[in-house]
C-alpha cells in the first residue's frame, strides 16, 4: 500500500508526502476516503492535508470530487536535473532515432532498485509498450534496466537479487547466477538485450550513456516487435546517439566551468 504505516509520531511533512504517494499509475484519481486509506492516515487528517495541498496547487479536484496530482507539482518536477539537463540534451538524438527506426525510444536512469523512464518517444508504427515517461519498471527484465544494473555497484546487484527476481513472462531471467552472467556480457559487448522478458512480442536493446567522467548516468534504448527485431541493426544507431549525448554533456560541463571561472 502507498504511504507509510499508521504512526502517530510521523511528522506533518511525512503525512503530506504519504498523501502524494497515494497516487500512482493505477490510481491517478482518488476520492478523499481512498487517499486516507492508501496513505494510512485518519480521514480528518487527510481532509486537512488534501485541502492545503489543493490550495497550493499540488492537488486538483474534478467535478466528481476526486483528486489528482496538480499542475504546480508537475512544474516543479520538471526542474529536476534529470529533466532539465539530461532530457534536453538527449531529446534531439532520441527524435532522430525514433524517426529513423519508427520504433519506441527510451531514455532511462536508475533510482535505487528500479528503472525510471525520463523520456519515451514513439510512432504510430511502433509496437505497443507498457512504459511511460516518469514510470518505473524492473531492472532485470528490460534492456535499459540491464544496462543500468550492469554498470551499478556490485552491492546494488546483490541487494536487487536478494529481493527475488520476479517473473513477468516465460523468458524472464529469474536466477541470480544467470542474471550475473548476462550483466557481465552486457559490460563486455557494450549493449543489453531483453527479448520478451517484460512483455511478450517485444524486444528491447539498450546502450549506456556516459558522462564526462566515464560514469554511466543513463541508458538509451529501442523497443521493437520481437518478430522483426534485428539486434545488430538496432544497436548500430544507438551507439553514435549515446556518444553524441556524452559529448554534449561534456560540452555543457565545460561551459558551466567557464561561467564559474568568470
Task: Explain this structure.
With 262 residues, the protein is of the alpha+beta class. It has 2 domains: 65 residues, Winged helix-like DNA-binding domain superfamily/Winged helix DNA-binding domain (Arc Repressor Mutant, subunit A); 180 residues, Beta-Lactamase, CATH 3.30.450. The chain is 46% helix and 18% strand. It has 9 helices and 8 strands. A 6-stranded antiparallel beta sheet has the order 5-4-3-8-7-6. A two-stranded antiparallel ribbon has the order 1-2. A hairpin with a 5-residue loop joins β1 and β2. α2 packs across α3, α5 packs antiparallel against α9 and α6 packs across α8. The longest helix has 31 residues. The relative contact order is 0.10. The N terminus is likely disordered.
Amino acid at each position: 500500500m502507498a504511504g507509510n504505516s499508521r504512526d502517530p509520531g510521523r511528522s506533518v511533512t511525512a503525512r503530506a508526502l504519504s498523501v502524494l504517494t497515494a497516487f500512482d499509475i493505477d490510481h491517478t484519481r482518488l476520492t478523499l476516503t481512498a487517499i486516507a486509506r492508501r496513505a494510512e492516515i485518519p480521514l480528518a487528517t487527510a481532509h486537512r492535508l488534501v485541502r492545503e495541498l489543493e490550495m497550493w496547487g499540488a492537488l486538483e479536484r474534478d467535478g466528481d470530487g476526486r483528486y489528482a496530482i496538480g499542475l504546480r507539482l508537475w512544474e516543479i518536477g520538471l526542474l529536476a536535473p534529470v529533466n532539465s539537463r539530461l532530457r534536453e540534451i538527449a531529446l534531439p538524438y532520441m527524435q532522430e532515432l525514433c524517426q529513423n527506426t519508427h520504433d519506441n525510444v527510451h531514455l532511462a536512469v536508475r533510482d535505487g532498485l528500479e528503472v525510471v523512464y525520463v523520456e519515451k518517444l514513439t510512432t504510430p508504427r511502433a509496437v505497443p509498450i507498457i512504459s511511460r515517461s516518469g514510470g518505473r519498471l524492473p531492472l532485470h527484465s528490460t534492456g535499459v534496466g540491464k544496462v543500468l544494473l550492469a554498470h551499478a555497484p556490485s552491492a546494488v546487484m546483490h541487494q536487487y537479487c536478494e529481493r527475488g527476481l520476479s517473473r513477468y513472462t516465460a523468458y524472464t531471467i529469474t536466477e541470480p547466477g544467470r542474471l550475473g552472467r548476462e550483466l557481465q556480457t552486457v559490460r563486455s559487448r557494450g549493449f543489453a538485450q531483453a527479448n520478451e522478458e517484460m512483455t511478450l512480442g517485444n524486444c528491447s536493446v539498450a546502450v549506456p550513456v556516459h558522462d564526462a567522467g566515464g560514469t554511466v548516468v543513463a541508458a538509451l534504448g529501442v523497443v521493437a516487435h520481437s518478430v522483426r527485431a534485428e539486434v545488430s541493426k538496432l544497436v548500430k544507431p544507438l551507439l553514435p546517439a549515446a556518444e553524441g549525448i556524452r559529448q554534449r554533456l561534456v560540452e555543457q560541463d565545460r561551459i558551466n566551468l567557464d561561467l564559474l571561472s568568470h
